[in-house]
Amino acid sequence: MLLRLFFAISAVFSVLLPIFIEHIWPWIPVILVGSFAALTALGVIFLFIASLFCYTKKPIEKDNAFCRLLGYHTMDCIIAACNAYPHGEGLEKVPDEPFVLVCNHQSQLDPMVAFVLLKGRQLGFISKKENMRIPIVGPISQKIGFLPLDRDNPLRAMRTIHFGAKMIKEMGFSMGIYPEGTRSRSGELLEFKTGAFVMAKRAGVPLVVSAISGTKDATRRYPRPTHVNFRVLEVIPAEDVKAMTAEELAEKSREIIAAAL
């Protein structure tokens, strides 16, 4: 939204300026590009400075509304920069109570799209630790409940899953996790790991099963506009989550997503 707003402001500025200044028409392209570049640079500088105050090595103890707003606008700008247009379907199915969100994984845009479409929800994600080293995005993400996952260390990975369950139970967070464990390069659905379902069972919350499409194309087709579809397919109630094993939940969720894709 912000990036597209910058485009609109730049366009209006370049059109109105000739009304007040004669002989400016040949400079319209320069004005358009320059005003957009200046606004974008100011936005990036602001986000960078703000992210310095978000940097932390300690687990968060509560949600930070200011950082969450920064996170929303940062991810929204990244989505816009990829010329992607996210659409949500079935969002009304998402429960008001905390939940665990599972989805197929195509691109690094996946959690950003879900985060933006579920704006207003106290949503965090389990993300590989390397993502937390990305300037601006990494520090802000950690401050709003994104947890780094060490995929090379099963013990640390399970500790992260358990801490995610604690955040859900004690801090009111909802957590998203991609049970494939990594992005699917081929587009085919990979086998599901059980960590997401262990977290849902430990937290005692519903499981929101969703599917996403289009994000893989969005990172390949720039500047061609790409429509990204995020669909909430089914919500497995907390009672059913408690009654089923993690393996059964993984199998059922995979079947639901595979059928939708």
Description:
Helix 3 packs across helix 4 (110-117), helix 6 (154-171) packs parallel to helix 7 and helix 7 (195-203) packs across helix 10. The protein has helices at 2-20, 28-54, 65-81, 110-117, 137-143, 154-171, 195-203, 215-218, 238-243, 246-260; strands at 84-89, 100-103, 123-128, 147-149, 174-177, 207-213, 226-236. The chain is α/β, with parallel strands linked by helices and 261 residues long. The chain has a seven-stranded mixed beta sheet with strand order 1-7-6-2-5-3-4, with helices on both faces. The mean pLDDT is 83. Strand 3, helix 5 and strand 4 form a beta-alpha-beta unit. The protein folds into two domains: 1-54, no CATH class; 59-260, 3-Layer(aba) Sandwich (Glycerol-3-phosphate (1)-acyltransferase), CATH 3.40.1130.10. It has ten helices and seven strands.
Q: Spatial order of the strands in the main sheet? A: 1-7-6-2-5-3-4
How many structural domains does the protein architecture include? 2
Structural class: alpha/beta
Which CATH architecture of the largest domain?
3-Layer(aba) Sandwich
Q: Sheet bearing the most strands, described?
A: 7 strands, mixed
Enumerate the spans where pLDDT stays under 50 for 5 or more consecutive residues.
none
Mean pLDDT: 83
Shape: globular
CATH class of the largest domain: Alpha Beta
**End-to-end gap:** 28 Å
Helix content: 40-55%
**Secondary structure: number of strands:** 7
Indicate the proportion of strand residues: 15-25%
| Total DSSP helices | 10
